[in-house]
Amino acid sequence: MAATTFAQRRRRRIAALLAPGLTWITLVYIVPAALIVLYSLLSPKLGGGVVWELSSDAWNEVVSKGRRSEAGWGTLGSAAVRALAAAAVATLPLAACARWLRRSERGALAVAAAVGALVGVNHLASSYNNYAAIFARSVAWSVWATALCVGLALPLAVFISSRRSRITKNALLVAVMIPFWTSMLVRTFAIRFMLSNTGPLNSVIESLGFDRVVFLNTRFAVLLGLVYTALPFMVLPLYAAVERCDRTQMEAARDLGAQPPQVFWDVFVPLIRPGLTVGSIMVFVLSVSQYLVPTLLGGGKTNMIANMLDLQFGEAFNWPLGAAVATVFSLITILSLYFVVGRRDRAGLL
Amino acid sequence: MNLFTKRAALLRLVAVAAVGAVLAAGCGDDDEAAPVAAAPETTVAPAEPAPAASETGRCGDPERLADSINFLNWADYIDPAILDMFEEECGVSVTLDTHVANEDAIAKVAVGNSGYSLVIVTDYAIAIMADQELLAPLDLSLIPNSANLDPNQMSAYYDPDNIYSLPYQYSTTGFAFDVTAYETPPTSWSVIFDENPLCGESSLLEDQREVIGAALVYLGYDWNETDPAAHEQALELILEARDCVSAFDSANYYGDLGSGEILAAMSWGFAAGIAYLDNPNVRYIIPEEGGIIWQDAMVVPADAPEAYTAHVLINYMLEPDIGALITEFTIGYTPNLTVPPELSDDYFDVIEGAGLVLTDDIRERLTWQVRDERHAIFADTWAEVLLYGSGPPLRGAGGGGGGRRGGGAGRPPGGRPRPDRHAEGACRAPGGRPRRGPPRRRRPHAGADPREVHTRFTPCR
Fold first, then answer.
1. Do A316 and B382 touch (CB under 8 A)?
2. How far is CA A289 from the centre of its chain?
3. Domain boundaries, chain A
4. What is the Cα Rg of chain B in Å?
5. Is the dihedral of CA A60, A61, A66, A67 positive or negative?
6. Phi and psi dihedrals of B460, rounded to 5?
7. Cβ proximity of B332 and B269 under 8 Å
8. ipTM of this predicted complex?
């Protein structure tokens, strides 16, 4: 009797503690999410909003919008060729690395296949103008941005972590953080200025006697913007992970005869994997939902999902279509989180 | 009552003018001033029992005026000094809030209880808002200055009887370019849609109606064409042009045009004027195939808390001197027939210099852009333009490059001469180069202290 009372009381206390949070989540996340799904099934109204008539137009549009103008078997073929070529080019060095690391080549082949797939998807996404293409493009660019961020942030994190003096470390970390202190809008405008036809970069190029290069409003500019904006979100978790990781383990591996690449791959990378995962998620989620960067650096020509949301909820007055796009968008983010975190976490890696 | 007020206001105006004449004539001709001053005084006295109430006659009935009013306007679309003047003169403090897209303004008012008593939006938005019963009918008897409005700009398609709106400023959509960039100045949209010699240095607006409309007129259709086959052709044309233009951009292009960053752009008329302030080589044309005329107008929301004060403010903004301040600030066209004599020479220098003079000949080429349910197809076509992913690769801008089409033909050797940005005689905007900012449509205001900046001009000579 006393036991049940205690259990009940405990349950009640937990419920009371959780109630504010759960109410908040329900009001701010679950209800709006449900509304968005509901809106995607209604009819658009001129001037914004919805007419309360059920309609599947929005979903039809998301699924079947767009002409495959230049697409078709030819594009599919050329995408396949590019994918295979990219995979083949990637295979050789990756396999060599794997051999060097004395690991099986299967992992290397998987990575090469992923690179190939990414190249193929990217090419396909550039040739189609439907929603699948813009989703694929946004995801592909975000994956590129994430990979580039890892490549740039890891050496930096190791460098900062290897400084002896605390002051130097802090100074370097502050230097990484400083961009946070300015508005992202201002920073993006700064990049815009740097890359512009008459900007500093082109002045240098012209003073060296070359023709100007159009940097702004290209895919290059968008990718640069994505990496630039997201980089601190990769550096900080990686730095934390590198700081935490136990150097003696690497020394032990070295003493036991492991080559440096092996130490890196078999000891260091598993040790910093939590930081890597967190950083990748942050960079990916931030990049895939970018609005400013494609708007300001892509010149409205290289758009991502958020730009389509803006169009449908704004100028186009098509809220149902915007809601349908938003639903797919959320699903993409949630599913990618599930695949990266959910599964890793079960394996106890995060 | 209404007629009475109107007459009283008119008489008061006459009285003020007469007093002014007396003062002006004080050191000169007494013979002429005396009878003019005498006549209204005798008439006014019985008609106005409380003359002290509003000395200038521009503030309506002070009993009914609110202390403050919320005003929603396009960003940087009114000289802030005007609002200070209104506060000084009439004792109403105006809180200015800005929007950067008609859609934002509609959304703000549509939710209800927005608190705005006066809103300025563009033509088609008024039709939408009126349709959704978001607007209150205007009481023109409270706005005697509405009699001064240009009949050409009244009774537009969006509000045929001017029940809800009175025009504020209007302008056009056409093509702006740096004259030094072309051998012969362009006269047609073909420089965008057929052979664009300025790859990477020309831009199109980021606007579904204007870009698709221009493609449609270039193909010989109407700006407001809704036929899917026509849109299919227009889409084809835009997708081809898109690889060469540097951007779809409505926010930064006029700053870029002024700084020489780009050399040609599909442009709003007033924006070409602003670019001209920075770069006197900028010229504006309405291409022979046609352009758009658009108009921003003043409306009072149906749930406006201070509708009367809003009417007074509308009337105030239709005063000749205030209208001149507005037009000199926006570099648009004024729909108020009493304003042009008040405008400064600097304004006309810009209008004439940049080729913004609106002749009857040009007017014939302009169309209003209608927007209702039938025009949803524009959004569909535009979505296809934006969804399309073939972004341009990096490309050389100086000499012939990979993706250029018809580039080098007829160009002087050694590349095109760079425009001389700061040619002498350039009237520069106060504060110098325009700040680039997020507004989608209007140029950010460059001046530091709003009270100092009554116009965008500094004397050139």
1. yes
2. 8
3. 1-39, 42-66+130-346, 71-128
4. 24
5. positive
6. -95, -30
7. yes
8. 0.82
B83: domain CATH number?
Answer: 3.40.190.10
User: Quick one: closest CA in B to A211, which residue?
Assistant: B398
- Alpha helix locations (H) across B157-287? 190-193, 208-218, 228-242, 253-259, 269-278
Per-residue tokens: B371: 């927007």
Rounded to an integer, what distance in angstroms lies between the CA atom of residue B390 and that of residue A85?
Answer: 20
Main-chain phi, psi angles of B116, to 5 degrees: -80, 135
Q: List phi, psi (to 5°) of B339.
A: -80, -45
B383 touches chain A (CB under 8 A): yes
Q: Is residue B386 part of a domain?
A: no
Cα–Cα dist B246/B401, whole Å: 14
Domain hosting B300: range is 68-169+296-346
Nearest CA to B54 out of B8, B90, B19 is that of: B90
Give A46 to chain B, closest Cα distance, Å: 7
Distance CA B338, CA B358 (A): 17
Residues B165, B305: one domain?
A: yes
Q: How many angstroms separate the CA atoms of A140 and A291, rounded?
A: 16
Number of domains in chain B: 2
Question: Could you report the per-residue pLDDT of A76-127, keeping only the tens digit for each?
Answer: 888 888 889 988 888 888 888 777 777 777 778 888 888 888 888 878 777 7
CA distances from B361 to B150, B186, B219, B290 (A): 18, 17, 21, 11
A318 sits in which H/E element: none
pLDDT on residue B426: 36
B334, part of any domain: yes
d(CA B290, CA B207): 17
CA atoms within 13 Å, Cβ hemisphere of A261 = 9
Token pair in block for residue A314: 């704004």
Least Cα separation, residue B173 to chain A (angstroms): 18
> Two tokens at B346?
């600097």
Query: Cβ–Cβ of B398/A222 closer than 8 Å?
Result: no
Q: Which residue from A48, A198, A211 is facing B399, i.e. has the nearest CB?
A: A211
What would the pLDDT profile of A35-66 be if each residue is shown by its tens digit?
999 999 999 988 888 899 999 888 988 887 76
A195, two tokens: 């890359």
How does strand A43-44 pair with strand A50-51? Answer: antiparallel
Whole-angstrom Cα distance, residue A154 to residue A215? 27
For B55, residues 6+ apart whose C-beta sits below 8 A from its C-beta are none
Q: What is the average per-residue pLDDT within A223-227?
A: 95
| Cα(A192)–Cα(A294) distance, integer angstroms | 11
Sequence letter at residue B231: H
Using DSSP bridges, classify how beta strands B291-301 and B366-368 pair: parallel, antiparallel or unpaired.
parallel
Q: Does A123 touch chain B (CB under 8 A)?
A: no
Q: Do B74 and B43 lie in a common domain?
A: no
B325-356 core/surface letters (b: 16 or more CB in 10 A; e: else): bbbbbbbbbbbbbbbbebbbebbebbbebbbb
> With the C-alpha atoms ordered B268, B269, B271, B272, is the resulting torsion angle positive or negative?
positive
Task: Give the one of B207, B373, B394 whose C-beta lies nearest to A46's C-beta.
Answer: B373
What's the CATH code, domain A42-66+130-346?
1.10.3720.10
Per-residue model confidence (pLDDT) at position B162: 94
* Interface contact flag, B247 A197, Cβ < 8 Å: no
Contact B394 A220 (CB under 8 A): yes
Q: Look at B132 and A47 and tell me if their CB atoms are within 8 Å.
A: yes
Last residue of a domain, one of B346, B380, B415: B346
Minimal CA separation from A11 to chain B, in Å: 42
